[in-house]
Q: What sequence folds into this?
């Protein structure tokens, strides 16, 4: 996470300044950005640089093949996606087994789980649009290696990034002001708020817990990960826009979501959108029944859980959220129109949604010991 590295932050600021100075050169946003992305990653880690250059090159070959091939496209499409999923899965297994590997830390922790989603999105684009999806190698490389979103998202859509690439660099004073404010806000969340909240959480969760303390820690941790995730998104959006690219919002007032369906369109929105788009697209030729859609909801949430981590806790987390999403769909309660219901009903539904989320949010801690300790505390009445 290089937003905590001052040298990295200064480098990104410098790149934004260079783009502003060279804005009259129509190719500055493409050529200079590629040089920056490659140079930044190379200085950060030679191993990371070599891996991602090869990873990007291999997948670009597959991408161009899908764009132009007239035969064998479907097997190639499936195989390319399977190979990417298998690759990231193997690295996750290395992490679970705590094996020492010279590539594991730099590759796994710095972007592959995000980049594999972008690679797959590009494959979908190439498969369904064919020749119309063709993109130059320089633009494809910038899409995969884009530094502001490399380690923590938001997840970029291939078609949106390519559309931005075709536009000349235009960043006015208002955009600069808004972007800088966004970066400062994100830095404050991540460096000040999250650091303090993490210290409080770590101290409290080591103690013997009672019901009220476990409930407090769940709510506290929920707020902590919001400031953490949204802080990174703020910084990425700010730097991305300074470099001439419109980075999508990742958090859209998730606490005002009256249903879990709407919540997952507002919390880590680009991740939820990615899984919905790429799973439901497989069934796009026919409108799924309520039961099919409900089953897909469970599948998508389990996959999102596994994307966060390969453990039984994340699988259960996915099943838990999937069941609630399925019930909302089956009962016809997946959306609530604020304008058509009473204010009390709307906010009651928002509160219920937040309660459902809060009861499982501690799984994000990634530690089974911490999760079980806090859940046991719920049953420990004072």
A:
């Amino acid at each position: 996470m290089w937003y905590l590295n001052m040298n990295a932050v200064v480098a990104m600021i410098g790149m934004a300044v260079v783009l502003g100075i060279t804005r009259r050169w129509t190719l500055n946003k493409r050529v200079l950005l590629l040089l920056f992305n490659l140079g930044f990653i190379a200085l950060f880690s030679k191993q990371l640089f070599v891996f991602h250059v090869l990873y990007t090159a291999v997948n670009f070959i597959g991408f161009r093949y899908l764009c132009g091939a007239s035969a064998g496209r479907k097997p190639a499409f499936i195989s390319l996606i399977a190979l990417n999923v298998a690759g990231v899965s193997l690295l996750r297994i290395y992490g679970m087994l705590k094996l020492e590997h010279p590539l594991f830390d730099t590759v796994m922790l710095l972007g592959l789980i995000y980049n594999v989603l972008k690679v797959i999105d590009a494959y979908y684009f190439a498969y369904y649009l064919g020749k119309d999806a063709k993109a130059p190698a320089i633009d494809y490389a910038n899409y995969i290696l884009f530094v502001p979103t490399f380690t923590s998202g938001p997840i970029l859509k291939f078609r949106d990034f390519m559309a931005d690439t075709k536009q000349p660099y235009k960043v006015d004073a208002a955009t600069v002001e808004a972007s800088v404010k966004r970066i400062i806000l994100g830095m404050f969340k991540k460096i000040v708020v999250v650091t303090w909240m993490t210290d409080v959480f770590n101290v409290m969760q080591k103690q013997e817990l009672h019901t009220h303390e476990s409930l407090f820690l769940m709510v506290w941790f929920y707020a902590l990960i919001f400031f953490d995730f949204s802080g990174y998104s703020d910084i990425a959006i700010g730097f991305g826009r300074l470099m001439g690219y419109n980075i999508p919002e990742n958090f859209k007032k998730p606490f005002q979501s009256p249903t879990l369906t709407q919540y997952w369109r507002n919390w880590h929105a680009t991740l939820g959108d990615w899984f919905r788009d790429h799973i439901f697209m497989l069934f796009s030729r026919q409108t799924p029944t309520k039961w099919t859609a409900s089953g897909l909801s469970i599948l998508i949430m389990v996959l999102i859980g596994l994307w966060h981590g390969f453990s039984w806790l994340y699988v259960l987390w996915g099943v838990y959220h999937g069941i609630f999403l399925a019930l909302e769909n089956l009962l016809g309660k997946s959306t609530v129109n604020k304008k058509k219901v009473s204010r009390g009903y709307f906010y009651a539904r928002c509160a219920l949604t937040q309660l459902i989320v809060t009861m499982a949010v501690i799984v994000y801690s990634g530690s089974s010991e911490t999760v079980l300790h806090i859940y046991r505390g719920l049953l420990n009445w004072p």
Summary: The mean pLDDT is 90. DSSP finds 15 helices and no strands in the chain. Residues 42 and 50 are 8 Å apart (CA to CA).
